[in-house]
């Protein structure tokens, strides 16, 4: 937190200098506001981040062509803040606007398009619109398959997102299939005790739990716990989560 507060004060000082030295709608001012927004977002100051991102967007609208990719990034950032603040319909409309610009400004398989589809999927998922979430996550994965190497961790993340929607829809065999693919990629792409591997193991355990296969669920939860104990602080929320998962499954056995 200390490093972030230092970064924030440095960025705010830089902004004050730029305000004096530059015209009021110079693109570099938009960059300053955007960077302040990023730091505020990292430390959970979402309303301050939101106002910085919105100020950045106002300048970009004047300084840049209407379908410039930087505008899409700003809409995406603002949408993400509304998502973090629980305002999902506002988040959705801004993320859609970001996607529209990216479709015009970028090649059809640019990674930023995959990011947009994924972000929209996350909002649909949170709103309980699972078939729409699934469609967005799958579109994101299609783009990533073309844009990224075959065992890139982002592919595994997409497979994981798809799997967890299938789990919520009660389609457990499809969920397991996607999670196993996610795990295969993570095993190739990451060190053996990377926390993301544990996410896959924990989620496979969750699906088996929902299927009533408690001994298999326990086996995967324990694998997740082993990795998280090696890779995370003892009070980390993921360790607390998997401990609770293990307790719950043992009650069922």
Automatic annotation (TrEMBL):
SUPFAM superfamilies: TPR-like. Transmembrane segments: none annotated. InterPro entries: TPR-like_helical_dom_sf, TPR_rpt. It holds the Pfam family TPR_10. Keywords: Cytoplasm, Cytoskeleton, Microtubule, Motor protein, Repeat, TPR repeat. The keyword Secreted does not apply. It is found in: Cytoplasm, Cytoskeleton. It comes from the Eukaryota. Coiled coil: none annotated. TPR repeats lie at residues 30-63, 72-105, 114-147, 198-231. Its main location: cytoplasm. PROSITE patterns: TPR, TPR_REGION. The keyword Repeat applies. One of its GO terms (cellular component) is microtubule. Kinesin is a microtubule-associated force-producing protein that play a role in organelle transport. Oligomeric complex composed of two heavy chains and two light chains. PANTHER family: AAA+ ATPASE DOMAIN-CONTAINING PROTEIN (PTHR45641:SF1), TETRATRICOPEPTIDE REPEAT PROTEIN (AFU_ORTHOLOGUE AFUA_6G03870) (PTHR45641). Belongs to the kinesin light chain family. This is Kinesin light chain. It comes from Rotaria sordida.
């Amino acid at each position: 937190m200390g490093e972030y507060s230092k970064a924030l004060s440095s960025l705010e000082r830089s902004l004050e200098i730029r305000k004096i030295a530059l015209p009021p709608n110079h693109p570099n001012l938009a960059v300053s506001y955007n960077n302040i927004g990023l730091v505020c977002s990292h430390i959970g100051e979402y309303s301050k981040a939101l106002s910085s991102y919105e100020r950045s967007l106002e300048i970009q609208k004047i300084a840049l062509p209407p379908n410039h990719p930087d505008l899409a990034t700003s809409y995406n950032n603002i949408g993400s803040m509304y998502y973090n603040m629980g305002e999902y319909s506002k988040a959705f409309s801004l993320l859609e606007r970001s996607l529209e610009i990216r479709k015009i400004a970028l090649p059809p398989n640019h990674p930023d398009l995959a990011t947009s589809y994924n972000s929209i999927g996350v909002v649909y998922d949170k709103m309980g619109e699972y078939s729409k979430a699934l469609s967005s996550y799958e579109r994101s994965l299609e783009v990533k398959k073309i844009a990224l190497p075959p065992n890139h961790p982002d592919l595994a993340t997409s497979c994981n997102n798809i799997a967890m929607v299938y789990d919520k829809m009660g389609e457990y065999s499809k969920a397991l299939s996607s999670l196993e693919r996610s795990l295969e990629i993570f095993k190739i792409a990451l060190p053996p005790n990377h926390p993301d591997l544990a996410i896959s193991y924990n989620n496979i355990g969750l699906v088996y739990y929902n299927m009533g296969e408690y001994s298999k669920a326990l086996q995967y939860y324990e694998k997740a716990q082993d990795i998280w104990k090696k890779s995370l602080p003892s009070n980390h929320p993921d360790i607390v989560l998997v401990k609770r998962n293990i307790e719950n499954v043992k009650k069922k056995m």
